[in-house]
Amino acid sequence: MTTKTAAANAGNLIITGVVLMLLGDLLFALNDAMGKWLVASFAVGQVLVIRSVGAFIVLGPMILRQGPMALFRVEQKGLQFIRVFMATVDVALFYAAVAYLPLADVMTFYMAGPIYIAALSHFFLGEKIGWRRWLAVLIGFAGVVIALRPSTAMLSLPSLFGLAGSLAFALSLVMSRYLRSTSDTTLVTWQTIAALVTGIVLSGGHWQPATLVDWSGMLLLGIVASCAHLLITRSLKLAPASLLAPLQYTLLLWAIVLGFLFFNDIPDTQIIVGAAIIVVAGLFIFHRKNLKETVPTEAVPRDGH
Description:
By secondary structure, the protein is an all-alpha fold. The protein is 74% helix and 0% strand. The protein is built from twelve helices and no strands. The chain has helices at residues 3-39, 44-66, 77-98, 103-110, 113-124, 131-148, 157-178, 184-202, 212-238, 241-244, 250-263, 269-288.
């Protein structure tokens, strides 16, 4: 393989990673809106349990395809455990936060994720970030603050849930990037099992009767969430975390659309201005990234999951 061909293949990998991240973010935005609707009527633990069952509708065939025993043949078990723990904390705290705060407030906390990821990737993954991209990330976060206009509820305990959850989310993404030789199926399966166990513990004494529509919504939540996790996990194996992190800002754009469709929230001028700043900052970061600094093809697992 010539150098030119290798560079082209590497470029294709990184573009695929970007597309998968964008699609995963769309599904996560849908997951967030559905989750807020469900936790308004049901305990977080109950939602986590049924959500996890729904996730196995997607994961089940993938587990059978790669073989159940492959779930136990993983690298660096200590880091795997920490990643699963962080992913579980992220999900539980997010639902706990949106049960008491407006979705926009919680999304504000999670929009800080790209800043965490860029910093962590710089120091722990060796993905160097130039000062221009650092500045663009900060400007993008400023746009988030302008668009979402945090309320006075930010000083409450639920707001701390949102802050801690966003940090856990960023850490889980960085570790997904570090553990990219582990199959996507294995990574998402273990975090789903952890969420199921956590849900069972939290739902003790808080289980409520539900209609068929409610049960279906919770199962669908699991299907959407597992697909989102699979897409983002795969994207982190194909492109640097520092490049993909700013794409999380697209969650804001989807939040505006879904907020209008499901909660009849109409964006005002301040939201539109903030969204524009975020998009411009994200595009600048993408432009500045050298596409030659990609993951080698051989670093991507061959299992296809």
